[in-house]
TrEMBL record, chain A:
Localisation per UniProt entry: Cell membrane
PANTHER family tied to this protein: ABC TRANSPORTER, PERMEASE PROTEIN, GUANOSINE ABC TRANSPORTER PERMEASE PROTEIN NUPP
Identification of the protein by name: ABC transporter permease
Pfam families: BPD_transp_2 (PF02653)
Keyword Flavoprotein assigned: no
Main localization, broad class: membrane
Membrane topology category: Multi-pass membrane protein
Keywords of the record: Cell membrane, Membrane, Transmembrane, Transmembrane helix
Membrane-spanning parts: 12-37, 57-83, 95-111, 117-140, 149-171, 204-222, 251-269, 275-295, 302-318, 330-352
From TrEMBL, chain B:
Domain of life: Bacteria
Source organism of this protein record: Albidovulum sediminicola
PROSITE patterns: ABC_TRANSPORTER_1, ABC_TRANSPORTER_2
SUPFAM superfamilies for the chain: P-loop containing nucleoside triphosphate hydrolases (SSF52540)
SMART domains: AAA
An annotated Gene Ontology molecular function: ATP binding
Keyword Nucleotide-binding: yes
Protein name: ABC transporter ATP-binding protein
Automatic annotation (TrEMBL), chain C:
Pfam assignment, any one: BPD_transp_2
Keyword Transmembrane: yes
CDD domains: TM_PBP1_transp_TpRbsC_like
Protein name: ABC transporter permease
Subcellular localization: Cell membrane
Superkingdom per UniProt: Bacteria
This protein's record includes keyword Transmembrane helix: yes
Membrane topology: Multi-pass membrane protein
Positions of transmembrane segments: 6-25, 37-58, 64-84, 96-114, 145-161, 192-211, 217-236, 243-263, 269-287
Keywords, ordered alphabetically: Cell membrane, Membrane, Transmembrane, Transmembrane helix
Length: 362, 509, 310
């Protein structure tokens, strides 16, 4: 019989080993799933995890990795701060959309002005948009003790309808012959508001730069700053945090606001860069996948940067598998979900030891 | 007097990783006997009792109950055999009513209406008044204990286990409880009475078994043994009372005036018009039965619960609206009762826990950035000064034993050169040696000129270290009186007697 | 007797149908939360129930088999949650979210090739002439059996929680798992059972969406109904009959906004379609603040894992 026994000190080995074990287990279980779908598991796994890095088209796909990893990392960094403090912002997808709408809206309002200031102002507007959207659940929680999980999630659906309205209504391209979608930001159509690739072929745009910077900043915050200590404390022992002098309301506003702003930034960078314009479905669920990224990175900023790339691999490789092998794209979503399951399951080893006690033997 | 043996414990051993909780424990209890199980915290009393109640399985050894081998694999089996247990904590449900709580502890409870009637009947018979429809969360600690006792009595137990039953009772309530227990004993119910309060055991128990570090170190007839002899058996060393240096009282450092505050805790107690002052060098002891506003008073003094600014003055400065950090800056440190989760973050290291309250007065941060080297230094200083047994400062707080963690947490506060010290339950669940060290450290700080407030449910402790004595009762504080010359009867009156029980006991008296 | 192009009798009759999925899911989640577990995976279990039910119903041409399969699908998925939180002691919030993300992907994978197919019709209960009574007929006697079954289930859960020993034990476990453990109750096993029940109910609700409400299969068919069900549990302050009221309220709003869209009212479609979510937020705010403090009614151990140390 198996029995769990709490470790006196969390295991450092398993702290780092669990994500690796989880990825391996997911490959095995995912392989089974792919086999059930009639695909050769080894080929699919190789297509997802190997080809984007070292395959025939790696020169292009490696760039795509950074394109996908950027927003995931940016959002996940913000979410991880809240998750550490026990504040569950589940509505990053909505904040991502609102950041994109606000950032793009400011840019489009200034069309066709050409000024170096436009893009920075759009960045600010994007961050503000996400921040404001996240402040709704934050303020409702601090003022009325309303559950932030449900409110932030409901606001995703609201943001989606606003997005629909934006792309068919108030942000629609007046020269678009009535088709939904805004003016394009990409290429030469509106250079001042565009978020181009900074180094050709690298996939790096301003979003990626921000993501890496935020990773470092969050690392310093959590390791060295008293605020980071308070965030960790509030999550692990809320009463001890109050005893230390943390005001829970302040922390909620801070963590929700920060994660909202980062999600908004991600949305703004996406819509002006890789997506190119506001359209009814420019969002592809990064706000939700980022939750997996945050946990896969163990809520540690450096881990999240790494996890962002792994998750990007499943996206890029998944697309490859879809086009080359006909793997349904939903299979990749299942694959990502399994990854989170395995991670949460294996995580028990960090804080517990598994003891085997044979029945009948003392 | 010879009795027929009811329960025979033979060679019981039980170990957990790193600990031998029980080692070759043997003794027996007779029918109708009140038998004391005596020992310090961590001596293995709870583990032993849990084996009798079927919550834990022994590694070795046998139990014999009413002449038959007895190895309950779960509590329901033990209950069916006639063993009942009154827990110290954790066995009542606050949001359920009395009858529901009783039903949960029974094997085959009758329908609710019938059960309510039986609860009334039994509570009359044993002088333990109780309303079956009341929510347990609204009951006082003493009343909650009655729920547990009645739950046991309804099952006609042959053996009743009581785990530290008097720690939550006023002296008068203790007397009533003893009356009930004697009545049960005379009806043939044996009682296994777990305690470390020696005088109680001397008045109540017929026999005693003393445990130390999991082993039986002696047995005695309490009536014929002095408390001192039993204490030395229990602790395994000669005890020395703390040393008091009579320092001159200085000016007032903490003044509380007409402090009232609603409790932030569900089913908590509202503080009502509390006033007192503490001078430099003075120790104010605040007694009271658990749940009379102790936690709330600590929250209000530490700054976690804010009040109007002029209600609390630290060094003459209005501080009622200050938060915990600002109060520390003003010179007040506090140590809450709950070590795991309130005073300390259990999963964080001792270094991080040192930062938890030491950041301000020990200057451990610069512009918000943490000086980890200085913090580690502070943690190690506390570990060394207060003799905290730990492999190092990197260890998680929860890995330390209760006594060691408490030494660390008290040391952490005392080593910030505080002017006002507020401590709730300084030695709760701490072994005697550590408790003595903690009391001495507190007295030393007072002698150096700090004003100290000690909130405790341990009367002996307060009488030992306090200069002034007051009692919290239903959120109100009595006027502090000098400890010198106080009698136990006076203290009992200050504690508000037995909650509504004086009337009840006439029935059977 | 139409008001603004909307017939109130038809409105009430159709809101009773619209309320069934969230009522079932919320009722299941209520039991789960009463036992002290917070399962945020309702949306995932619902949508897996929806596709399992749809596949089974299309395959067998029997709606009953569809509902059974829906319940089974939801329950199986909930067991993953139960295993992770009760055995592996994983964080309940994170695991619930994982369940939803996984469920959405899984349903879409399973649903490939089922788009555009019509499921067998779930018949109305034949009340004969009773259904012809004006006003009362369509409201009380004009529904399929699942509408009546869902109300019966509310009554059943209410009775079990209130008057049976099982209900008392579930409430006790949710109130204080330490105390329940000390009295010898198997905390994790009881919770496991409740989680499975909650999963089956969510799956049943999901199957009702794909078999009756819509009735066809499209990706993301539940569209946040699982989350609304979670909100209804808070709205109901963990009381079964209030779940019924809450579900009818939300059913009413979603039916009303659809009717308003169809009736061509002046309000833009987007604002109408976001209204159920906005109303949910408003209701949550009202229930959590002030005197109606729902949190006071919440089970005390909600969301905490239990591990018997010694």
């Amino acid at each position: 019989m198996l029995r769990l026994e709490k470790r006196p000190i969390p295991s450092r080995f398993w702290l780092y080993a669990t994500p690796v074990v989880a990825v391996l287990l997911t490959m095995i279980a995912g392989g089974l799933l792919f086999a059930l779908l009639g695909k050769n598991p080894a080929t699919v796994i190789k297509t997802i995890f190997w080809d984007p890095l070292f395959g025939e088209f790696a020169w292009y796909l490696r760039g795509q990795l950074l394109v996908k990893a950027g927003p995931l990392i940016l959002i996940a960094i913000g979410l991880s701060l809240g998750f550490r403090a026990g504040i569950w912002n589940i509505g990053a997808e909505g904040q991502y959309i609102m950041g994109a709408i606000c950032g793009a809206g400011v840019g489009l309002a200034l069309y066709p002005t050409e000024s170096r200031l436009i893009f920075p102002v759009m960045i600010l507007a994007g961050a503000l948009g996400g921040w404001a959207w996240a402040m709704i659940p934050a303020i409702l929680k601090t003022r009325f003790n309303t559950n932030e999980i449900l409110v932030s999630l409901m606001l995703v659906y609201v943001a989606e309808t606003i997005l629909a309205k934006a792309s068919t209504g108030f942000l629609r391209n007046p020269e678009g012959a009535g088709f939904p979608g805004s003016r394009s930001f990409s290429g030469s159509s509106f250079p001042a508001a565009s978020n181009p690739e900074l180094i050709a072929g690298s996939g790096l745009h301003w979003g990626g730069v921000f993501a890496l910077l935020m990773g470092v900043a969050a690392y310093i915050l959590l390791q060295r700053h008293i605020l980071g200590f308070q965030i960790k404390l509030a999550g692990q022992a809320p009463r001890a945090a109050r005893f230390h002098g943390v005001k829970p309301e302040r922390l909620v506003l801070l963590c929700m606001g920060l994660s909202g702003a980062l999600a908004g930034l991600a949305g703004m960078f996406e819509v002006t860069g890789p997506a190119g314009k506001i359209s009814i479905d420019f969002n592809v669920g990064y706000g939700f996948t980022a939750i997996i990224v945050a946990f896969l990175g163990r809520l540690n900023p450096l881990g999240i940067v790494l996890a962002g790339f792994i998750m990007a691999l499943t996206y890029v490789g998944g697309e490859m598998a879809a086009t080359n092998l006909g793997l349904p794209s939903a299979a990749i979503q299942v694959f990502q979900g399994m990854l989170l399951f395995f991670l949460l399951g294996v995580d028990v080893l960090t804080n517990f030891r598994i003891r085997t006690t044979l029945l009948g033997v003392k | 007097m010879t009795r027929e043996t009811l329960l025979k414990i033979d060679g019981i051993s039980k170990s957990y990783p790193g600990v031998k909780a029980n080692e070759d424990v043997s003794f027996s209890i007779g029918v109708g006997e009140v038998h004391a199980l005596l020992g310090e915290n961590g001596a293995g009393k709870s583990t032993l009792v849990k084996m009798i109640y079927g919550l834990v399985k022994p590694d070795e050894g046998t139990l014999t109950f009413r002449g038959k081998p007895f190895a309950p694999s779960e509590p329901s089996e033990a209950r069916a055999a006639g063993v009942a247990m009154v827990f110290q904590h954790f066995s009542l449900f606050e949001a359920l009513n009395v009858a529901e709580n009783v039903a949960l502890g029974m094997e085959n409870p009758p329908p609710m209406r019938e059960l309510a009637a039986r609860i009334r009947a039994v509570s009359e018979e044993y002088g333990l008044p109780l309303d079956p429809a009341r929510m347990v969360g609204d009951l006082s600690a003493g009343e909650r204990q009655r729920v547990e006792i009645i739950r046991c009595l309804l099952q006609d137990p042959k053996l009743l286990i009581m785990d530290e039953p008097t720690s939550v009772l006023t002296p008068q309530e203790v007397e009533i409880l003893f009356k009930t227990l004697r009545q049960l004993s005379s009806e043939g119910t044996a009682i296994l009475y777990i305690s470390h309060k020696l005088e109680e055991i001397r008045t109540l128990c017929d026999g005693a078994t003393i445990l130390r570090r999991g082993k039986v170190v002696g047995s005695c007839v309490p009536r014929e043994t002095t408390a001192r002899e039993m204490a030395e058996l229990m602790v395994g060393a000669t005890l020395t009372p703390p040393e008091r240096r009579a320092g001159a009282k200085g000016e007032v450092v903490l003044g509380v005036t007409d402090l009232s505050a609603a409790s932030p805790i569900p089913f908590g107690t509202t503080l009502k018009g509390i006033s007192f002052t503490v001078a430099r060098g003075e120790v104010l002891g605040i007694a009271g039965v658990a749940g009379n506003g102790q936690d709330e008073l600590l929250l209000a003094l530490s700054g976690e619960l804010r009040v109007a600014s002029d209600k609390i003055r630290i060094n003459g400065r209005a501080a009622g609206d200050l938060g915990p950090g600002e109060r520390r800056r003003a010179g007040l440190v506090a140590a809450p009762e709950d070590r795991y989760g309130h005073a300390a973050a259990p999963d964080m290291s001792l270094v991080e826990n040192a930062l938890l309250t030491g950041a301000i007065r020990r200057n451990l941060t610069h512009r918000g950035f943490i000086d980890w080297a200085a913090t580690r230094g502070f943690a190690e200083e506390v570990i060394q000064t207060y003799d905290v047994r730990t492999p190092g400062s990197h260890v998680a707080a929860r890995a330390l034993s209760g006594g060691n963690l408490q030494k660390f947490l008290i040391g952490r506060e005392l080593d910030q050169s505080p002017e006002v010290i507020v401590i709730n339950q300084p030695t709760w669940g701490v072994d005697a040696a550590a408790a003595a060290a903690i009391r001495q450290a507190i007295l030393n700080r007072a002698a150096e000129g700090a004003g100290v407030v000690v909130i405790s449910q341990d009367l002996d402790e307060l009488l030992e270290i306090a200069d002034m004595f007051a009692v919290l009762n239903e959120g109100r504080l009595t006027k502090p009186r000098p400890v010198e010359g106080l009698t136990i009867d006076q203290i009992g009156l200050m504690m508000g007697g037995a909650h509504g029980m004086e009337v009840a006991h006439h029935v059977e008296a | 007797m139409d008001i603004g192009g909307i017939n109130p009798v038809i409105l009430v009759a159709s809101l009773m149908v619209a309320a069934v999925p969230i009522m079932l899911a919320a009722l299941g989640e209520l039991v789960v939360e009463k036992s002290g577990v917070l399962n945020l995976g309702v949306e995932g279990m619902m949508i897996v129930g929806a596709i399992c039910g749809f596949i089974a119903a299309v395959g067998t041409q029997s709606p009953v088999a569809g509902f059974a399969a829906g319940a089974a699908g939801g329950a199986v998925l909930s067991l993953v949650f139960a295993f992770l939180t009760q055995v592996m002691l994983a964080n309940q919030v994170a695991t619930g979210l994982a369940l939803t993300l996984f469920g959405l992907g899984l349903s879409s994978l399973m649903g490939q090739g089922y788009n555009g197919i019509k499921p067998p019709v779930t018949a109305k209960v034949p009340f004969g002439p009773l259904a012809e009574i004006p006003v009362l007929g369509p409201i009380v006697f004009g529904h399929d059996w699942m509408v009546y079954a869902s109300i019966a289930l509310v009554a059943c859960v209410w009775w079990v929680l209130r008057a049976t020993r099982l209900g008392l034990i579930i409430r006790a476990v949710g109130e204080s798992h330490e105390a329940a453990h000390a009295l010898g109750y198997k905390v994790n096993r009881i919770r496991l059972g409740c989680i499975a029940f909650g999963g089956a109910m969510a799956g049943l609700g999901g199957a009702y969406v794909s078999l009756v409400r819509v009735p066809q299969w499209v990706d993301g068919i539940t569209a946040g109904a699982g989350w609304i069900a979670l909100a209804i549990v808070v709205f109901a302050s963990w009381r079964p009959w209030r779940v019924l009221i809450g579900a009818y309220l939300f059913g009413g709003i979603s039916v009303l906004q659809l009717n308003l869209q169809a009736a061509g009212s002046g309000i833009p479609v987007e604002y109408l379609s976001m209204s159920p979510y906005l109303v949910t937020i408003v209701v949550l705010v009202i229930m959590s603040s002030g005197r109606g403090r729902a949190s006071l009614n919440a089970p005390a151990s909600l969301g905490q894992n239990f591990h018997a140390a010694r």
